[in-house]
């Protein structure tokens, strides 16, 4: 039984497509903008350079998203996949930036992308390391890692002076309840676009309460053309090694995200699909480096949008890429979206990210319950949660250890893969994996087309 409202290759009506594409953009925009802002703030870059990094990140993310969704020859997984700048590269970028500046970051990112490009041709072999047990752990860990992000948004933003103020939590709860109501009781497009409609209602409430800050709109330029290689590039060996390691970690995380995407879209993701998707990640990161942006990777949070709404059309997400491209060319558009208060994002984000977690739990529940699987699940989730909940655990470890295990997703995935390799019984499980039917997506309800 297929519960999707729109399949991967379906083309919804234009108005529906626009609303659904905007929904994906709202889910991704904050993450895309955050990476260049963090890098710029830590390195104390001039304001104009930070703005240029943000614009390049939006433009590059949009172009690579379109290619990933539509496909160009052997490049692109052809699934509803949003691409954006990744926090997996922030640590390496900052360490490189302190010594070699932005040219060193971009040059190292360009050279390091070769790791991902070459690695993409070995994805059929890497896919064998992700049987159902490991995939279930990774999908669950993605949800567990994203939910705290939504909680911080709901509270007003990590580090905000009014963090966890009752007004923030109240707005987030209002948006959450609104989205739940629209999904559960809405029909057709109302249910499918529940996230963007709920956020719009929350935004209107914040406007009425005077909680929307338009200062970013006033400062934003109307139109800005990209300026490739405006910073120049340098290629420090230490920087290339650091970025290369970040790309290795990203391959693991991206593989997990693609597997979660397969679950949400009812698609059996095989090695050849991973090859096209990871190749697009690598070539896309090389392209955006030339454009003047930090490296990109697949966004896990948008899997939650698909799981929640049942809209798996890659053409919808390709339009999201076009919206991101326009936001990069017209910074004022992105600035308007940035005015959405954090609690509004938090209320919707909690629902979306929890859907990924619920999908992971459903996958875990469908597995055979035996000692081997229990060990893999318990130890890998425990290790992943350890570094997510207490990142200071790695503070005194060598930089290479922090780079590899700094993410709960990568830690959980690596531990699960290693345990699956060393514990007895792997051969039988690998055989079962070959005949496994495509997993069914977890939806709030079976949504009927309008």
UniProtKB/TrEMBL annotation:
<feature type="transmembrane region" description="Helical">
    <location>
        <begin position="344"/>
        <end position="365"/>
    </location>
</feature>
<feature type="region of interest" description="Disordered">
    <location>
        <begin position="428"/>
        <end position="450"/>
    </location>
</feature>
<dbReference type="InterPro" id="IPR006042">
    <property type="entry name" value="Xan_ur_permease"/>
</dbReference>
<dbReference type="InterPro" id="IPR006043">
    <property type="entry name" value="NCS2"/>
</dbReference>
<dbReference type="Pfam" id="PF00860">
    <property type="entry name" value="Xan_ur_permease"/>
</dbReference>
<feature type="transmembrane region" description="Helical">
    <location>
        <begin position="231"/>
        <end position="252"/>
    </location>
</feature>
<feature type="transmembrane region" description="Helical">
    <location>
        <begin position="49"/>
        <end position="67"/>
    </location>
</feature>
<dbReference type="InterPro" id="IPR017588">
    <property type="entry name" value="UacT-like"/>
</dbReference>
<feature type="transmembrane region" description="Helical">
    <location>
        <begin position="190"/>
        <end position="211"/>
    </location>
</feature>
<keyword id="KW-1133">Transmembrane helix</keyword>
<keyword id="KW-0813">Transport</keyword>
<feature type="transmembrane region" description="Helical">
    <location>
        <begin position="129"/>
        <end position="151"/>
    </location>
</feature>
<keyword id="KW-1003">Cell membrane</keyword>
<dbReference type="GO" id="GO:0005886">
    <property type="term" value="C:plasma membrane"/>
</dbReference>
<keyword id="KW-0472">Membrane</keyword>
<feature type="transmembrane region" description="Helical">
    <location>
        <begin position="104"/>
        <end position="122"/>
    </location>
</feature>
<keyword id="KW-0812">Transmembrane</keyword>
<protein>
    <submittedName>
        <fullName>Purine permease</fullName>
    </submittedName>
</protein>
<dbReference type="GO" id="GO:0042907">
    <property type="term" value="F:xanthine transmembrane transporter activity"/>
</dbReference>
<feature type="transmembrane region" description="Helical">
    <location>
        <begin position="79"/>
        <end position="98"/>
    </location>
</feature>
<feature type="transmembrane region" description="Helical">
    <location>
        <begin position="316"/>
        <end position="338"/>
    </location>
</feature>
<feature type="transmembrane region" description="Helical">
    <location>
        <begin position="404"/>
        <end position="423"/>
    </location>
</feature>
<feature type="transmembrane region" description="Helical">
    <location>
        <begin position="163"/>
        <end position="183"/>
    </location>
</feature>
<comment type="similarity">
    <text>Belongs to the nucleobase:cation symporter-2 (NCS2) (TC 2.A.40) family.</text>
</comment>
<feature type="transmembrane region" description="Helical">
    <location>
        <begin position="21"/>
        <end position="43"/>
    </location>
</feature>
């Amino acid at each position: 039984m297929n519960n999707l409202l729109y399949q991967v290759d379906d083309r919804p009506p234009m108005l529906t497509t626009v609303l659904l594409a905007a929904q994906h953009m709202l889910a991704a925009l904050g993450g895309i903008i955050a990476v260049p802002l963090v890098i710029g703030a830590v390195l104390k870059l001039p304001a104009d350079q930070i703005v240029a990094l943000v614009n390049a990140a939006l433009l590059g993310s949009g172009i690579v998203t379109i290619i990933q969704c539509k496909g160009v020859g052997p490049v692109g997984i052809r699934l509803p996949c949003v691409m954006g700048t990744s926090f997996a590269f922030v640590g390496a970028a900052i360490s490189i930036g302190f010594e070699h500046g932005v040219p060193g970051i971009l040059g190292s990112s360009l050279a390091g992308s070769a790791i991902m490009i070459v690695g993409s041709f070995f994805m059929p072999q890497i896919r064998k390391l992700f049987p159902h047990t490991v995939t279930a752990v990774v999908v669950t860990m993605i949800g567990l890692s994203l939910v705290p992000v939504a909680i911080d948004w709901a509270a007003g933003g990590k580090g905000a002076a009014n963090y966890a103020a009752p007004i923030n939590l109240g707005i987030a709860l209002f948006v959450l309840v609104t989205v739940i109501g629209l999904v559960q009781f809405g029909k057709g497009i109302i249910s499918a676009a529940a996230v963007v409609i709920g956020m719009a209602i929350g935004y209107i409430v914040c406007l009425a309460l005077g909680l929307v800050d338009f200062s970013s709109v006033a400062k934003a330029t109307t139109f800005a053309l990209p300026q490739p290689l405006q910073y120049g590039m340098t290629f420090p060996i230490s920087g290339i090694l650091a970025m290369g390691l970040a790309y290795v970690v990203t391959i693991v995380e991206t593989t997990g995200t693609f597997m979660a995407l397969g679950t949400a879209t009812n698609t059996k993701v095989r090695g050849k699909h991973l090859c096209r998707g990871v190749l697009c990640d690598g070539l896309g990161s090389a392209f955006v480096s030339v454009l003047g942006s930090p490296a990109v990777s697949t966004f896990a949070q948008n899997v939650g949008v698909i799981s929640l709404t049942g809209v798996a059309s890659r053409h919808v997400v390709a339009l999201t890429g076009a919206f991101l491209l326009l936001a990069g060319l017209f910074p004022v558009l992105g600035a308007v979206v940035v005015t959405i208060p954090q609690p509004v994002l938090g209320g919707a984000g909690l629902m979306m990210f929890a859907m990924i977690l619920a999908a992971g739990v459903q996958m875990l529940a469908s597995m055979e319950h035996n000692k081997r699987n229990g060990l893999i699940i318990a130890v890998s989730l425990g290790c992943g949660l350890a570094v997510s909940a207490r990142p200071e655990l790695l503070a005194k470890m060598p930089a290479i250890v922090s780079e590899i295990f700094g993410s709960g997703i990568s830690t959980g995935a690596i531990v699960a893969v290693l345990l699956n390799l060393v514990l007895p019984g792997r051969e039988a499980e690998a055989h079962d994996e070959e005949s496994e039917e495509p997993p069914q997506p977890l939806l709030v309800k079976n949504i009927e087309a309008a």
